[in-house]
Specification:
By secondary structure, the chain is α/β, with parallel strands linked by helices. It is built from eleven helices and twelve strands. Bound molecules: iron/sulfur cluster. GO terms for molecular function: ATP binding; ATP hydrolysis activity. Its main location: membrane.
Length: 338
């Protein structure tokens, strides 16, 4: 059973921060086999993450959240990217492959869902954590020393003794700490965490979240946390961006979005979170499924599933527009008669 975190206190809203990464009109097109044509998975996404800010990116599978995050690091070689990704004054989409390679791990790092598929079973933990530093030309002894320091920081028990151990000798939770150490050893300023706790049991999941919370606070690290679990968002993030069908449909402080979601899709996601006191027979699910990218409906892509749709919804695509401190893409904001 999933841990149900309490909703955050509305008073805990954080002030606006200095931007670290600013994404403008980002699109991601993926090729369709060898046909020469492509399909748009991410469709004009705009957002900013501040220095040290913890932002969650949520949505159902296929919403484009992982591809958005991977595009920031240009991890998918076949993906065609357009728009602008400004990191500390540099457009990452214009960097050479070589310069982008240098930036990965040192300025922006990423952790993934399944640590075992990310770790090399034939390499020691120490060598794997030190590898990012070795690639940057740091000597073996110094790289090993820093690897040990970060493993210690992340609470890996008897880290000095275990530098020469192999991944299969670690538990799932400890392997996720090692993967986190690999990401953090280069002292990045932005960590992208793609469902890093999904493959873990609830107890270990909470430990890893506490650890991420500690380490991001201590280091002033910004985190983009991708998840479909709103309980995790409530427990970890300051701001939440909701994605649907390749677009951001709501973006705001976690406390205010959870207390008063504006977009019908966000309302549905929150309604679908099980509560401890809830009768299992009354569990809610948003009807239908997200559209495949090749068959997006006209107008608002959520309209076939939306219980608040009206005539305009099937025709016009709603733009993401400011609403108080949030941004929302829904025609309801303009009134049904507009
Ligand atoms: Fe629903 Fe219309 Fe708003 Fe889309 S634009 S979420 S269909 S009300």
């Amino acid at each position: 059973m999933k841990t149900v975190h309490p909703l955050p206190d509305e008073a805990s809203v954080v002030p606006v921060r200095q931007p670290l990464i600013t994404v403008e009109k980002l699109t991601v097109d993926m090729p369709l086999g060898r046909s020469g044509s492509s399909v748009r998975i991410v469709d004009g996404v705009d957002f900013t993450i501040g220095v040290g800010e913890r932002v969650a990116l949520v949505g159902e599978s296929g919403s484009g959240k992982s591809l958005t995050a991977r595009a920031l690091m240009r991890l998918d070689r076949l993906a065609k990217l357009s728009g602008r990704v400004d990191f500390d004054g540099t457009d990452l989409l214009k960097l050479s492959d070589r310069d982008m390679g240098k930036l990965r791990g040192s300025s922006i790092a990423m952790v993934f869902q399944d640590p075992m598929s990310f770790l090399d079973p034939l390499m020691t933990i120490g060598d794997q954590v030190a590898e990012t530093l070795r690639i940057r030309g740091i000597g073996k002894a110094e790289a090993r020393k820093r690897a040990l320091a970060v493993l210690d920081e992340l609470g890996v028990d008897r880290a000095a003794e275990r530098l020469d151990a192999y991944p299969h000798e670690f538990s799932g939770g400890m392997r996720q700490r090692v993967v986190l150490a690999m990401a953090l050893v280069g002292e990045p300023r932005l960590l992208i965490a793609d469902e890093p706790t999904t493959a873990l049991d609830v107890r270990v999941q909470d430990q890893v979240l506490d650890l991420l919370d500690d380490v991001s606070t201590r280091r002033g690290l910004a985190v983009l946390f991708i998840t479909h679990d709103l309980g995790v968002v409530a427990g970890f993030a300051e701001r939440v961006m909701v994605m649907y069908s390749g677009r951001i449909v709501e973006d705001g402080e976690v406390a205010s979005v959870f207390a008063k979601p504006s977009h019908p899709y966000t309302q549905g996601l929150i309604k679908a979170v099980p509560r401890i006191d809830q009768d299992l027979n009354t569990l809610y699910a948003i009807p239908g499924a997200p559209p495949p990218p090749l068959a997006r409906p006209s107008g608002c892509p959520f309209h076939p599933r939306c219980d608040q749709r009206f005539d305009r919804c099937g025709v016009d695509l709603p733009a993401l527009q400011p609403v108080g401190m949030s941004r929302v893409a829904c025609h309801l904001l303009d009134g049904k008669g507009a």
